[in-house]
Amino acid sequence: MKAELLKIADFLHNKNSGLKIEVIKIWRDKRSRVLLLSALFFNFIAWLIGVFINQRVEDKVIALHHNIYFGITLIGSAKQVYFIPALGFIIITLNLIFSHIAKEEKNFFIYVFAASSLLASIFIILGLSSIMLINFR
């Protein structure tokens, strides 16, 4: 039993050190570092917008989605706004994991995943801005 636990612990330790090396490789590259830091910065801005919406709302329900054809199509609690920045953070994390899985000699996939994280964060800010426009104009 102890030998099996030691094998599992050794396996996890080896995987952890390999992951640490890959994260250091991603972090040392200036372009990927700038893309990831800007994606995290925009995600932080999205969290601030979510807090602003949640503090400023006066009713218990707000409009979460508006369609030009049908009007307001989704109504919910103001706390549901926090799912949007959380989704952005999940996207950033998954893209880091995917860039670790799809490692190549060139950093092409690292750049693609980091740029998609940045674009996702920007679109999330646009979505939260539309929620602000719908509810507070």
List the helices and strands and how they pair.
Layout: H1 2-28, H2 30-56, E1 61-67, E2 71-77, H3 83-101, H4 108-136
Antiparallel strand pairs: 1-2
Helix pairs in contact: 2-3, 2-4, 3-4
Brief descriptors of the model:
single chain, 137 residues, mainly alpha, two-stranded antiparallel ribbon, 4 helices
| Strand and helix order | HHEEHH
* Oligomerization status of the protein chains: single chain
Spatial shape: elongated
Residue share in helix: over 70%
Mean pLDDT: 83
* Weakly predicted, low-confidence segments: none
* Secondary-structure-derived class: mainly alpha
Count, helices: 4
Number of individual domains: 1
Tell me the strand order in the biggest sheet.
1-2
Keywords: Membrane, Transmembrane, Transmembrane helix
Describe what this molecule looks like in 3D:
By secondary structure, this protein is mainly alpha-helical. The chain has one domain (30-136). 74% of the residues lie in helices and 10% in strands. It contains four helices and two strands, in the order H-H-E-E-H-H. A two-stranded antiparallel ribbon has the order 1-2. A hairpin with a 3-residue loop joins strand 1 and strand 2 (71-77). Helix 2 packs antiparallel against helix 3. The longest helix has 29 residues, at 108-136. The mean pLDDT is 83. The chain crosses the membrane at residues 34-53, 82-101, 108-134. Keywords: Membrane, Transmembrane, Transmembrane helix.
Kindly summarize this structure in a few lines.
With 137 residues, the protein is mostly helical.
